[in-house]
Structure formats: structure tokens, C-alpha cells
Design a protein that fits this description.
By secondary structure, this protein is mostly helical. It folds into 3 domains: 82 residues, no CATH class; 74 residues, no CATH class; 71 residues, no CATH class. Helix 3 runs parallel beside helix 5, helix 4 packs antiparallel against helix 5 and helix 13 runs antiparallel to helix 14. The radius of gyration is 24 Å and the shape is elongated. The N and C termini lie far apart (70 Å).
Length: 286
């Protein structure tokens, strides 16, 4: 009972309404909403940090100001503000998961920030949240995959470590792998990547999958994706992923059973070449 009363007090009577800090909250919001009025970078940074800390007090205040926080995270030109808000986002997601989780796409988006420091902080926060199962792994994980070809080596190492740790989480990496492939190779996606970088990314990620049963099932999943895909780039990318797999009798049988999914795609020469590579690999192993 006492716990509920304290929670209610924090939600409604401290930084909201007539709460003792409500006046300060209004000032903080005013500074954050009016960057042209308050042009001092230090004031902006302090206000952004104060906004996030005030949101930590009350779920009501947090819910009311998430849009303001993600707007600053997206549009503020001050690197230090974005650095602070990325860290704060992770704290808020831990404190009020139901309120903050629907906004996580804005956190993933900072993996493409112009600042390598912001990208690094974002990756560190996401790695902590995902590997500790505080946030579900969704299709946006392809944004993390892109970090494997980041221009900054520290970010590349962090991204590789992320997928190595994710591979230890049961079927998690295996389950999202087909979506990663589709997102990175789909011309209509906003995360398309050059073929060379696609191959670097998928070679590393697929090397993390070692369980024989997962590898067998992956053959089937990739074949079915090839049947469903409609463009040559996706056919080639999926065939490339198949060519990376270690082949056993069982996985080869699975490939043959699903030949109907890709037989017409073999008319496209790059796909045919990759399947010939698979045949050569199997032949050598036998």
C-alpha cells in the first residue's frame, strides 16, 4: 500500500500539476522547446539532461514528454545533447518500459548519426538492453548489423561482439537472421547496403550460427525467402547466404527438397554461379 502511495505521489505530485518541482519542469520544457530563444549550447545541454532526469521521476511526465525527447535526439545539432539523451533513453526504457518501448525506433536511428561518439553510445546502450533482454529483438536489428561495416573500428568491434553475444541467447539470432537479410537487401528498404558490405556483414553474422538443427532450418527459410522475393538483388543475396553454410547430408537434402523455391532463379547467372559454388563445396567435402 505504501509503495503504491509513493508511486502515485511521484507520478502526480512532484514534477506534475502543483508539485513542488512542477515550476522547474515547465522551465525545462520551455528551454527544450525553444532552441532559437535559448541559443547557448551549455544551457541546451543542461536542459536536455534535466528533462531526462525529470522524466525518470514520473511515468506521467515521461509519457507526456517522450515526443519532445526524441525530437531533440533527432534534430538537436549539439553532439553532447544527443550523447546525453541516448544514455537517458536507455535509463528511461528500463524505468518505464511500457511507455518508452514504442519509441525505440528513434534510438536505433542514432546508429546512423553523423557523430561516431553518438553511434558508439547508441550501440553500447542497445547492446546492454538487448543482451539483458530488456528490449525485444525486432527487425530494426539490421541497423546494428550495418555497424559491422562502420568507418570507426571501435564501433565495428562493438557490433561484432553484440552479435557474438546474441548468438548465445538460444534461437534469438537464428530467428531474426532472415529479417536482417531481407532488410539489408531490399531495394525498397531505407537500410539497403552495397553488395560488398552486405557480404561482409552476413559472413560474420552467419558464422555465429553453429547448431546443426538451426543450420538445417536456415536452408529452408532462405529457400522460401528466395521464392517470395521479387528482385534479382535479393535472389543473389539469399543465394550468397546459402553458399556460406557448412553442408551436411541433412542440410543438402533440405536444399534439394526445396529446389522448387529457387529453380527459376537459376536463370539469373549470378545466382547460378553461387549454386555452382555450393555444388563444388559439397563435392570437395565428400
Amino acid at each position: 500500500m505504501a509503495t503504491e502511495q509513493v508511486r502515485h505521489m511521484l507520478d502526480s505530485d512532484v514534477v506534475c500539476g502543483n508539485g513542488v518541482l512542477a515550476g522547474f519542469s515547465l522551465l525545462i520544457i520551455d528551454v527544450c522547446k525553444n532552441p532559437k530563444k535559448y541559443q547557448n549550447p551549455l544551457i541546451t545541454c543542461v536542459a536536455a539532461t534535466a528533462l531526462a532526469e525529470t522524466m525518470m521521476v514520473s511515468s506521467v511526465f515521461c509519457n507526456e514528454n517522450m515526443q519532445l525527447l526524441v525530437t531533440m535526439l533527432e534534430k538537436c545539432s549539439e553532439e553532447n545533447v544527443r550523447l546525453s539523451l541516448v544514455i537517458a533513453f536507455g535509463d528511461l526504457l528500463f524505468k518505464f518500459p511500457n511507455t518508452v518501448e514504442p519509441w525505440t525506433r528513434f534510438l536505433y536511428a542514432r546508429l546512423r548519426d553523423e557523430s561516431w561518439k553518438v553511434r558508439r553510445n547508441t550501440l553500447l546502450v542497445l547492446s546492454h538492453l538487448v543482451t539483458n533482454e530488456m528490449v525485444k529483438v525486432k527487425g530494426q536489428i539490421s541497423e546494428v548489423a550495418l555497424c559491422i561495416v562502420d568507418e570507426n573500428e571501435e564501433i565495428v568491434d562493438l557490433a561484432k561482439r553484440f552479435f557474438s553475444e546474441l548468438s548465445l541467447k538460444g534461437n534469438t539470432l537464428y530467428n531474426v537472421l532472415p529479417d536482417i537479410i531481407s532488410h539489408l537487401s531490399n531495394p525498397a528498404s531505407d537500410v539497403t547496403v552495397e553488395e560488398k558490405n552486405f557480404e561482409i556483414i552476413l559472413k560474420y553474422i552467419m558464422d555465429q550460427i553453429q547448431k546443426e538443427k538451426q543450420l538445417e532450418n536456415l536452408v529452408e527459410k532462405l529457400c522460401k525467402r528466395m521464392k517470395e522475393s521479387i528482385c534479382e538483388r535479393q535472389w543473389k543475396d539469399l543465394a550468397f547466404c546459402l553458399s556460406l553454410l557448412p553442408w551436411s547430408d541433412r542440410s543438402l537434402r533440405r536444399l534439394i527438397d526445396h529446389a522448387y523455391c529457387f529453380c527459376d532463379r537459376l536463370l539469373y547467372q549470378p545466382v547460378a554461379t553461387l549454386f555452382l559454388n555450393i555444388v563444388a563445396t559439397v563435392t570437395r567435402s565428400n
